Every structure is written in structure tokens, then in C-alpha cells.
């Protein structure tokens, strides 16, 4: 039994939905289908979800409202027409939009939540009807029926454990279930959307709930690549990743999808396969809980920019019980998360993502450090990039650190920071941002080429 | 103007004091002499200071008391006799001991402080009189006269800033001043000893106070070595070190002396020279505030054992504001200092010196982490050694990390931890304790041989 989730690009047009349909049709194990809202058909296109969000902020029945809702309906109409399914659904969609938008409410978040869910919901209805036209026994299943019960947090709903029981019972139902992604319902029936990557979350929850043998995540790429293809054209593909490796890779701007979305599947130990709707013959990338010893080594190189280094030095710092803790406390008081905190004997660096800092927070932090910790020096240095060499079980392997550092040396790049020791899955290098592409190339050549 | 400090081995016998005398005599710049108490003459010998401490814990005028005080006096008598100076001083010493030991006091710490200071004090008196016999205009100067004014902390006195003014005025005095190390006086005249390395502290304070051109620290080694001579026989000597380099080297079991003792000299930017009383012709090692660019690179490899790794992992740890801070807070509440805290995405390690941990503290820490942080896993791993590759300005140099990691790889040693990024002066590697000698050898061969 498999759960197949189709992302925005996989349902962006009738042509894409037909591809998804063939994929579902060719394997009877694909019993659960989860869909996103239609995404972009081309670069300058607008996602249905974005139009629905826009609509939630304009006054009902105004000219502006009509203009936006017309565009949404036109988009669906084209799909429905090209798929040759009944027009009825367009009336349903239109009514759903108008009903949601006409409600007078002080709770804008709730309104937006309901409106934006219509993209996925309508898409699931269209897909299930299309599957019927190609001879499959498929039905639309509302998340409430499916048992996707969530916390009362609009835009950031969390799945409640009871959901899995109801979902498991769905195994027994006949035919293919098509479930819209991105939202669930509270115990008292209020619709709530998930956070970013919401359809992935639904797919992952369904896979965990029905105890699927496989969760297939259909995207528009053949696989996960060992390195960002925007930096290295046509890089090697990753055949198999572990959950932990995926998590470390996702952290550092390793696109494809939001790793937390996969948490329910990971926790239920359901293997995940990343596949391409446009090239379903390609094996894709498997994400599993464990892989065999032989295939261990570096699986990928991830990177991200936008880090700053808060540096504090004070003679005899290491004798001052609580110095490090107090420094982190000051950051915490200002609501600033830190990434890493390498320390020397008389000094400590705190690596912070730039988006955690504002000029105001920075000033406040620096003033408090001066007053409360009385350091010898304090500085903030911007423009850091982090590069992560990822691979489970490789960390204690002799030679990985050497190979990595040799790559930097060969490319004449200074390493500003090395963080190894806690994670068994990665080594992190801090370098100047402008050296990032050069560094990635050097590491790719060292480990993969 | 120079300050020459002679350590315990340099005044352990009449023969050694004669060597120290020649050293003082041969350079008229050596105007200030600071002395330790007579140290060990041979491996199984007992230091005068240790006998004095012992004496402070026994009842006055008992058989045991007499036995210990006799041994102290005998030791001094032999020196005095061999140096051919007046016996009067032995009566002085004997009286000083009896006076200090006969006081009825509830304050054992104060009593011990006064008794143990007699070692240095007597030695200074002997040395000044000996210098007179070889024709030098030398005089004993009591630390109170010299202006060494300290805080009221027996065994851990801290110098008060006013001291430096009085010390500076001593520049104008004629002749050679011989000052006992290890103690000073509070503003209300109470004698207080410094902490470990106390005579080095006095020497360093005097050098800073009189604004010496050089602070000479006479020991029994020719120089500082680039690596522990117990691991590598006859290693290369260090010609010049910066203060910062010395500090990092001292931290990790790099013998010679206690780096904090040199703080007053460092802060006054007085150059320090480590020299050998037994081989004063050898150039020794200079410790300076800055050295020229060309001589930059790896200056030494330090190491220490006795570290443990407290490892905590929790999925989505990096989203939990304050997780790291709370972990460090728990350690702080138990009075445990940490050395380093490398962190991954979902995990954090805290490197702790074994002597900070007791079975009880460990249990308490683990219980609190379980209760308060609800981690997925928690473990304590013992038996780590830390290796530091030290050299100012080398850190951002391309290739240092590579050379170091290559040394480990060549020796087939797994690197458990790398900490680079905060200190500009060192990179720290964590390895298993049993690999330490092998690692030091490999690094020595890579950087020096």
C-alpha cells in the first residue's frame, strides 16, 4: 500500500494531472493520493494558493474581488475543460470561495485559512473525478472524514495523535482515496491549515496513519542531488538517504522539500521516495531510516548563506562559571536563536542567522554584553556562509575531515570555522560568503567527481 | 632594568643559589630578584613549602612539631653553612616559625598562609645576604615595603591596583632588591599568599610595577618546547611566543608555568623570558605581545586528557529557543564548568573536564536534563583527550586545518571533535585518550620535523 503525494507543479495543468493520473493507474498499490493546489505552470505564473490568499484580504464582491476570483475560476475551468470532466465542479468551487469570502469576521487568519484551503480541496475533487474518467474507482475524501484532526492554530496546525487511528481504518475502504493536502480540522470542526510545506505534511501524516509501505512524493525533479544544481550543473543523484541525512541537508537550503513535513513518516519509519511526475521511470531518491554499512560515506554537500558571527573575548573567560550561559541568556531574552557557539579559552563565538538580528536587537545585545559580562572585546562579523558535508556514520571515519579541508586548501579558501563533534552526520565549515560557490565546487570534485 | 625570578629548583641548594648569584652578578640590569622557597633537590626530596604546610596542621611544641621544624631548619642550615653566611638567620627563621605556629587561632587558613610564606621569606633573606658576600649591593625587601598590597583572600590573594604605584617608586632605590615571592599584605597588614604559581605571580607583578624592560623567569629547562618532551624526546625549542599563544599552550597541560601568573606582566606588555638557571647561556624562550608576520605559523602542540562528552539530542532542537542555554544552566546550577559546546542541528555536546564531575553531580544533571529538556537521547562518554594546534594568526591561513587533519588521517586516528572558529590562535581536536601519543607524534612530524 502506497501513499502518492503530488505537489503543485504535478497538478499545475490538465497535462500534469494526466501524468499524475497515469502514475496512479499503473500501480494498484497507490491507494491514497494527496494533492497540492495547482502551482505555477511557468515562471511568471501565479499559484492558486497565492491568489486565494490575496482574495482573503480584499472586500467581498468588489471589482477587485471579482477580478481575482475570476482568475481563480478561469484557471480551474481550463483544467476541468481540458480534462473533459463535468462543469459542475466549477460552480462548487465558486460557491465555496464566495461563502468563505463573504463571512464577516474579525479573525482574518481564520478567513485566510479557509480561503487558501480551497486550492487543495478543489484540486482533490478534480483529480478524483478525472481518475474516474480513466476508469479508476477513486473518491474525494475530505480531511475531516479522513480523520485529520489538528490543534487550533490557524496557519500552523499540529496533528493530534488520535488522527492516526481514524486514518488506519481507511485502509479497509475500497478504491482510491484522493485527499486534499494542507489542512485538517479541529475536534470542534474548525478548518486549520498547516505551516509551509503543508501538503507534504498531509501526505506524510496519511502515510504514517495508514502504515503505508511507501510514501511517494512526486515533484518536478528526478531525485535529490548531492549538491545544489544551481551551483554544479547536472550533479550526481542521491539514490538513498537516511532520515537524519535528509534532515541535515534540508537545514542548509537543500531545496526539494521542508524536512519537518516528513516527520510523521520518519517517526512511523515509512520509507519515502522522491520521484518526478514528468519522468516517473527515474528511480528517484529513497529516504529510509537505516542504510547498509557499505553505502556509508558523504551523501551530500549542503550550504546556506546569511550568517553572522558574534564574537566576545575576555581574559580568563574559562574560569568564569556561567559566562557562556549568560551570553546565550542575553540572546534568548532578545528572542534571538543561535546556530552554533564554538568557544576558545578566552573567547566565544555565536553564529546567528542574519534574519534573527535587527539593528535594534543588535544594539541591545551589545549593550547588555558590555554591561553584564564586561568583555575585553566584542564584535559582530557579517557575511558568513555555512557548508555542511553530510553522511551518516562518516564522522568518526578517518580521512573525511582531511579530504574536506584539503578541498578548501586546494581552492585557496580560508576556513573561518569548523564545527564537528556533536552531530554524527555532518561536519560544518564556516567560510566567507563570497567563497561559497568555489568551496562547493572544490568539495564536489573531491567527494564525487 | 630587569626582574629576575628564580623558581624552587633554582634555589633548592647552596649550589643552585650560587648559580643564581652569578646570573644576577653578570648583568647590572638585574635590579629586582624574586625568589621561591627551596624546592626539591632530587625526585624524592620534599619542598620546604610542603613541610611548612604540614607544620601548620600539627600541635605546637609536640614531638611531631619538633621533628618537622627541625627538618626545615636543617635544610636551611645546610644552605647557610655552604654559602658561608652568618648563622643569625637560622635563629630568625626558627623564631618566625615558632611565632607563627604558636598562635592559637580558629582560622587555620590564615595560620597556614603565614607559615608557608616563611619558605620564600627566608630564602629571600639568605639570597640577599649571599649576594652581599659576593660583593653585590643587595637588600632583602619585604613584600609590604615593596607595596605588594592584596585582597583579603588567604591562599588566593589578588593584587590591588595601588600596589603598582609603590612598586614603581622602588626603581629609584640603589642596589639590588631581593623580594620573596608568593605573598603580599592586605591594607590592614594581614599576610596573604597567592594561589598556585605564587612566586611567578610576584615576579610578574614586580616586573609590571617597576616597568621592567624584561621579566626573566629562571627555571630548570632551557626553553619552552613545541611539544611535551615526555611524548617527543628532544623536541624543537620555541624561540618566541606571543602572550596569547602561551595562554593557549598553558591551558592544555603545557607545563613550565601557570599562565595566569604572567597576567600582570602581559597586561603591562613586559616581555618575558624563560631561562635555565643551570644553562644561562641558552637563549631561552621569549614571550612577547606581538611578533612579526614572517614568524607566524604553528608554534606548538599542546594536549590534555581527562575530558568527557555530555551528548544530548532532540528532534527539532534548533527550533527550541533557549535549549542550549537551559542545558548550560543545569550544569551551572551544579557548579560544573564546561570547556566547549559544539552543536549540530538536533544535538549538542558539552565537553567537560572529568574533575568537574562526580557520580552524584552526573546523576543530578542527567535527571534534570531528562525532566526539563525532554531529550530523545542523552549520554556521557568518557576518555577524551584534547589536542591543540597553536599559533597566532595561523587560523585563517589556508592549509593549517588540512595539514592537521592529514596528520590524523596518516596516523589512522579518528577525529571525534574539531573546534575552530572562535580563537584566532588555536584549533582544537578531540580524540580518544588512548590515541593521544600517536596523534602528538603525527602532528609533530607534520609541522616540525
UniProtKB/TrEMBL annotation, chains A, B:
Keywords: Amino-acid biosynthesis, ATP-binding, Diaminopimelate biosynthesis, Kinase, Lysine biosynthesis, Nucleotide-binding, Transferase
Reaction equation(s) it catalyzes: L-aspartate + ATP = 4-phospho-L-aspartate + ADP
Pathway the protein acts in: Amino-acid biosynthesis; L-threonine biosynthesis; L-threonine from L-aspartate: step 1/5; Amino-acid biosynthesis; L-methionine biosynthesis via de novo pathway; L-homoserine from L-aspartate: step 1/3; Amino-acid biosynthesis; L-lysine biosynthesis via DAP pathway; (S)-tetrahydrodipicolinate from L-aspartate: step 1/4
EC number: 2.7.2.4
CDD domains: ACT_AKiii-YclM-BS_1, ACT_AKiii-YclM-BS_2
Residues in ACT domain copies: 389-449
EC top class named in words: transferase
Annotated TM spans: none
One Gene Ontology MF term: aspartate kinase activity
Family label: Belongs to the aspartokinase family.
Role of this protein: Catalyzes the phosphorylation of the beta-carboxyl group of aspartic acid with ATP to yield 4-phospho-L-aspartate, which is involved in the branched biosynthetic pathway leading to the biosynthesis of amino acids threonine, isoleucine and methionine.
Stated name of the protein: Aspartokinase
Organism: Lentibacillus kimchii
Amino acid at each position: 500500500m502506497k501513499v502518492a503525494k503530488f505537489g503543485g507543479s504535478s497538478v499545475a495543468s490538465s497535462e500534469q494531472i494526466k501524468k499524475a493520473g497515469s502514475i496512479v493507474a499503473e500501480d494498484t498499490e497507490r491507494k491514497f493520493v494527496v494533492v497540492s493546489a495547482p502551482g505555477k505552470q511557468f515562471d511568471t505564473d501565479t499559484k492558486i494558493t497565492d491568489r486565494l490568499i490575496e482574495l482573503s484580504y480584499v472586500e467581498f464582491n468588489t471589482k477587485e474581488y471579482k477580478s481575482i476570483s475570476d482568475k481563480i475560476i478561469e484557471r480551474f475551468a481550463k483544467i476541468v475543460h481540458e480534462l473533459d470532466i463535468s462543469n459542475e465542479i466549477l460552480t462548487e468551487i465558486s460557491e465555496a470561495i464566495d461563502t468563505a469570502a463573504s463571512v464577516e469576521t474579525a479573525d482574518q487568519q481564520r478567513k485566510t485559512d479557509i480561503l487558501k484551503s480551497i486550492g487543495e480541496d478543489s484540486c482533490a475533487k478534480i483529480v478524483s473525478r478525472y481518475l474516474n474518467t480513466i476508469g479508476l474507482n477513486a473518491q474525494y475524501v475530505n480531511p475531516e472524514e479522513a480523520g485529520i484532526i489538528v490543534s487550533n492554530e490557524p496557519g500552523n496546525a499540529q496533528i493530534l495523535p488520535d488522527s492516526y487511528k481514524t486514518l488506519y481504518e481507511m485502509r479497509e475502504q475500497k478504491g482510491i482515496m484522493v485527499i486534499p493536502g494542507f489542512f485538517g480540522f479541529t475536534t470542534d470542526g474548525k478548518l486549520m491549515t498547516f505551516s509551509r510545506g503543508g501538503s507534504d505534511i498531509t501526505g506524510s501524516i496519511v502515510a504514517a496513519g495508514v502504515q503505508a509501505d511507501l510514501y511517494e512524493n512526486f515533484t518536478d525533479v528526478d531525485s535529490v542531488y548531492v549538491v545544489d544544481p544551481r551551483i554544479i550543473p547536472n550533479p550526481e543523484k542521491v539514490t538513498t538517504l537516511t532520515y537524519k541525512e535528509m534532515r541535515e541537508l534540508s537545514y542548509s537550503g537543500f531545496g526539494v522539500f521542508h524536512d519537518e513535513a516528513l516527520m510523521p513518516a520518519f517517526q512511523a519509519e515509512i520509507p519515502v521516495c522522491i520521484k518526478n511526475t514528468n519522468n516517473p521511470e527515474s528511480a528517484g531518491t529513497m529516504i529510509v531510516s537505516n542504510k547498509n554499512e557499505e553505502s556509508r560515506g558523504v551523501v551530500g554537500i549542503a550550504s546556506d548563506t546569511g550568517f553572522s558571527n558574534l564574537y566576545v573575548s575576555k581574559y580568563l573567560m574559562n574560569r568564569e562559571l556561567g559566562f557562556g550561559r549568560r551570553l546565550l541568556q542575553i540572546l534568548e531574552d532578545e528572542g534571538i536563536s543561535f546556530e552554533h557557539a564554538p568557544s576558545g579559552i578566552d573567547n566565544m563565538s555565536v553564529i546567528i542567522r542574519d534574519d534573527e538580528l535587527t539593528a535594534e536587537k543588535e544594539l541591545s545585545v551589545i549593550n547588555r554584553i558590555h554591561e553584564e559580562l564586561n568583555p575585553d572585546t566584542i564584535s559582530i562579523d557579517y557575511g558568513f556562509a555555512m557548508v555542511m558535508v553530510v553522511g551518516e556514520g562518516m564522522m568518526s571515519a578517518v580521512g573525511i575531515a582531511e579530504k574536506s579541508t584539503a578541498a578548501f586548501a586546494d581552492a585557496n579558501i580560508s576556513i573561518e570555522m569548523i564545527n564537528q563533534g556533536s552531530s554524527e552526520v555532518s561536519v560544518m565549515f564556516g567560510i566567507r560568503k563570497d567563497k561559497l560557490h568555489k568551496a562547493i565546487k572544490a568539495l564536489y570534485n573531491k567527494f564525487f567527481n
